Amino acid sequence: MSIEVAESQSCPGYVDGPPWLFKGSALYQLHLVKADIARSFIPKDLRLVEAFGYTLGGFFLARYDDSPAGMFDELVVIAGIVWNPPTSCAWAARVLVNSHKACRHGRKHVGLPSHVARFSKSCSKQRVMATSENPKSKWNGFLNMIGISSTCSSPKGCMDIQVTEITGSSATALCDINLPTDDLFCRVRAVEPAKISGPTTALQSDEGRSFDEPSFNSNDDLRDVFAENDSLNRSISVLLSKPIFALEFNSLKMQVDAPTIVSQRSDNVVSDS
């Protein structure tokens, strides 16, 4: 059975064609990303929007409760902004989702650099108390939507999300996202930027081998591993860049149309000066 037929049976929303509708909540955070790092992800015929050696990148973290692929989490690493006359658009460096259907669709139909990942969520230990002691305690809308029960007692608590990329039987830690929490609810608001930290320890397999230790059968496989590791390291650099602004979206309703080709760079439209 082909992948297309399997997706048709289990995920009709994608097969029905665009526009695709996603509902949930999200955090959109902007970072100052070094132009040299961002440019490594962007085709050479497109122009990066930059000033003083930096562009606006960051990440988009979402929890979808309703989508063509059902419920899933998504982390989009945004390398920077590129010109798409008469306006501009964000460029995805890496997309992590905990849904194989969403990953296949992103790669095949949208051209996204999608990868399957695991999203492990936990409350900071110093903030945890029994729910029975504080039955009316609640998270803000976004934290409720991404699947964490209300067990933190302080409005200044935090929640940690560890994102681990999965490739076959191997797993590579990508980053830890530390989200501050409070009890204010609204549909769209500016929030304190989440704190991002890189991977700290290598995961171990059942055989005692490091999960992120590459295995290959040819020189071509070796080159692919090195290229992928380089892309992963640059994606982590984007996430670890300086945050400047964050927006939280509750009751998110996002309509995704069919992908279009980004306009190629034209010196008649945008000059290098």
> Largest beta sheet: what is the strand line-up?
8-10-1-2-3-4-5-6-7-9
Largest sheet: 10 strands, mixed
CATH architecture: Beta Barrel
Q: What does the overall shape look like? A: globular
Regions with pLDDT < 50 over 5+ consecutive residues?
A: 1-10, 126-139, 148-155, 202-216, 265-273
Mean pLDDT: 77
Tell me the count of domains.
1
Work out the strand percent: 35-45%
Model description:
This protein is α+β, with helices and mostly antiparallel strands. It has one domain: Acetoacetate decarboxylase-like, CATH 2.40.400. Helix content is 20%, strand content 38%. It has six helices and ten strands. A hairpin with a 2-residue loop joins strand 6 and strand 7 (170-180). It is globular and about 40 Å long. Residues 1-10, 126-139, 148-155, 202-216 and 265-273 have low confidence and may be disordered.
Name a few traits of the molecule.
273 residues, alpha+beta, Acetoacetate decarboxylase-like, ten-stranded mixed sheet, 6 helices, 10 strands, 20% helix, 38% strand, disordered N terminus
Give the structure's gist in a few sentences.
With 273 residues, the protein is an alpha+beta fold. The chain has helices spanning 3-10, 12-15, 35-39, 100-110, 141-145, 219-239; strands at 20-34, 54-66, 72-84, 87-97, 114-123, 158-167, 170-180, 188-190, 195-197, 242-256.
Chain-wise SSE layout:
Layout: H1 3-10, H2 12-15, E1 20-34, H3 35-39, E2 54-66, E3 72-84, E4 87-97, H4 100-110, E5 114-123, H5 141-145, E6 158-167, E7 170-180, E8 188-190, E9 195-197, H6 219-239, E10 242-256
Parallel strand pairs: 4-5
Antiparallel strand pairs: 1-2, 1-10, 2-3, 3-4, 5-6, 6-7, 7-9, 8-10
